[in-house]
Amino acid sequence: MSGNEIRKRYLEFMVSRGHAVIPSASLLPENDPTTLFTGSGMQPLIPYLMGEEHPMGARLTNSQKCFRSGD
């Protein structure tokens, strides 16, 4: 099974459980001066994890592009 097929099946599974699919954020964070790249799937969601309401609701899913580097 390819990576694209795994991603597609994962998102379909989550949608079938009532989650809304949100698009992947940019690899270059727009409003985070503390980092050069998006380094985890949670990073673009931090405002919503801290209590801000997301316009698509509380049950969200995505497949976030991220850049991992060894420090």
Question: How would you portray this structure in words?
Answer:
The structure is a single chain. 25% of the residues lie in helices and 6% in strands. The chain is mostly helical. GO terms for molecular function: alanine-tRNA ligase activity; aminoacyl-tRNA deacylase activity; ATP binding. It comes from Candidatus Kaiserbacteria bacterium CG_4_8_14_3_um_filter_38_9. It holds the Pfam family tRNA-synt_2c.
Number of strands: 2
The outline comes out as flat
Largest sheet composition: 2 strands, parallel
Number of domains: 1
Q: What's the helix-strand series?
A: HEHE
Structural class: mainly alpha
Total number of helical segments? Answer: 2
Helix content percent band: 25-40%
Q: Determine Rg (CA atoms, Å).
A: 13 Å
Strand order of the largest sheet: 1-2
Distance between the termini: 32 Å
Organism: Candidatus Kaiserbacteria bacterium CG_4_8_14_3_um_filter_38_9
GO molecular function, one term: alanine-tRNA ligase activity
Protein name: Alanyl-tRNA synthetase class IIc N-terminal domain-containing protein
InterPro entries: aa-tRNA-synth_II/BPL/LPL (IPR045864), Ala-tRNA-synth_IIc_N (IPR018164), Ala-tRNA_ligase (IPR050058)
